[in-house]
Write a structure and sequence with these properties.
This is Galactose oxidase. The chain has about 775 residues and is mostly beta strands. Mean pLDDT is about 95; it is low at about 1-20.
Length: about 775
Amino acid sequence: MLASTASFGLLLSAPGPARAGSNLIVNPGFETLRTGGEPTCWEKSGWGDNDFAYATTDDAHSGKKAMSVTLTRRVSGDRKALMLEDTSCAPSVTPSHQYDLSLWYKSTTPDVSVTVFRHDVKNGWQYWTDLKTLPVSGGYARAEVRTPVVPPGTDQITWGVSVYGTGNVTTDDFAMEDATQPAPGDVCTAGDACTKGSWAVMPFRNPVRSMHSVVLHNGKVLLVAGSGNDPELFKAGTFTSAVYDPRTGGMKTIPTPVDMFCAGHVQLSDGRVLIMSGNKAYPAADGSHGYEGFKDSYLFDPSSETYTRTNDLNDGHWYPSATLLGNGDVITFGGLREDSTGSVTAERFSQEQQKWLPAGQVNQTWSYWGLYPSMILMQDGRLFYSGSHVFGNGTPGTGASVYDYDRNTVTDAPGLQDKDHRDQSASVLLPPAQDQRVLTMGGGNVNTNPEGNRLTDVIDLKKPAPRYAPGPLIPQGTVDQGQGPKPETGAQGKMYVSAVLMPDGKVLETGGGLHDRADPVFEASMFNPAGDTFQPGLATDPIPRTYHSSAFLLPDGRVMAVGDNPGNGSFDDHVSIYTPPYLYKGARPQITSVASDKWQYASTQRVTVDRPVVKAELIRPAAVTHSSDPNQRFVDLPMTVGADGTTIDLNVTSNPNLAPPGWYMLYAVDAAGVPSVATWVHLGGPEAMAPAAGPMVHDFAHGMPRAAARKPAEKHASAEVGTQVAGCDRHYGTENVCVPTKFPKSVPATTAARCAWLSSHGYKNLRVNGKDDPLGLDPDRNGRACG
């Protein structure tokens, strides 16, 4: 425990903050009592199965009174000593400001956190965030922490201590002062880039047809192609990957043992990349089978830049999910089996045993979750299936659901708009992860091939019975349908959209196409979770980015975009880099030192910066494919700021479900939203030793109807999936050419119109495979479509 104790000691030895403001707390020392003997403006609250006692005690830090909370038995929940949610008691706050909160306390349990609630002028009182875990202290110790920026629409907050482990906590002398750092003036002289950012196409090409992009903890980027959707490379056994180093511009190709085209991948807690399944076979022209997934699994080691095989999966999974759990295990669902049917077998990779567990040791619902289902880890360990997926309709029911692994039940989450047109949509856990809100945007359907939509939906998983609510429409851009760029009109949006969490707490939305594997849309915008609004009109990537494209955050705060694979089988190997507006606002703050790069949950970590900053966060590095990265998350690090303004103690969440173990990019951000370059830190793991505190888990989403929870289905081998699941008619062309089974509605159902569309989209020399011609592309029966 020496390392953990030392990190806590940093806080207690920090220089005292300057005191300039007034204390905003009513009755901060509990000296005034109301009828009944309880302190004025304070309340007793909490939830769960526990035995507890509250007392006003004379064991005070100053004055004559203090507040004591004791838990003698705890199965679940917590007990709180909290300021009253009352207009005369709750401190008033100003949106966009930050506040320093402090208290004196004694504690016999490490399971204590500073918890804040906020009053939303529209929706009333609601949980806001947990700011800090308080270490055990036999005598009175002072704790201080700075709030995040107060969200729009907030006029008051209340706060106090939550006790969620057995023991006693005594508190006294609460204080709250405005600590807002003024934003610097506008120093940008870069013209439109000041508000729109800028894109640059790199002077080198991607050496591989990468379908998968993983940012490694050494700052490099792993780009995985496998066969790269090229059947000739598949037949030759030529499988490739590359490692890109943004600092040098160097690209190194990596020997790749199997066809990892359309595999699943996730970063383990030690920084290695676990890659599951891949492509066993391309679809047969005669329709006898579709894509096939194999059972192989590999680990990529960033230090040696080599692949090593693990034990096999229990089933094949072409297009599987991959979610890291709070204990470091990985769980995966869906995809296609070795016989092209849908896999109903859930798989679990054990962090402790470093292997895939036998299917009988993994809870099974025998559900088919589809292809690349977006499964996002919730703060209580459940999984939220957002409704984002690839190829075809959504799952039966509402299209979104919560999976409780321990109970092995699935409960629908309602409200997702047009759930059968969210194929190739994007879903992200919005910043910060503590808010437990998920954004889903865009999408279409490869079966019916409509125009991509503009829909967005937001769900708050903190609600007792969470449901999606419509968000703002995706801004429109220009679309090239083979006749040059034209403005989008009506309801035209996009699928294959990329969503990237940014260090300033916003989400970059970029790329995409109007139709399945066709008609690139040139548009980018920034979604701001603070108001659920888009900033439209950002600079756009000049390279089309539709199917098999990726966009992801680099450690220096820029965004890299690769790939584009239209239905005609071509592939764009240009690499683009986006420089966001925040990098045109002058000098960046710098993290000048980090006391340790090995962090543990519920700890306090000291850093220094070269000038004042307003927030710090951990961002999990990307592992993205097909618009999907369910592990992408932004974890707020509440700060305690020393008197010099540059010595900062960062308070790490106690809950591994909020920040699963592994390597993270640590950013510090100033009042103008300008981030530092990231410093890599490792969260969790044996080298940081066991945490002193247990995880603080809230009773969110507790009101989902238990009667509606679905139990496991009868055990069965697979789900039937049509061989045209990818939306491609294999009667024409080669394996990597995707002639749509359904043409866009704007294309008349005639040979001439269909052939004109194919020609304008770069399709050439399409042979007819066999005797059937279901789309009527070969009326003269010469074996050549549109010949």
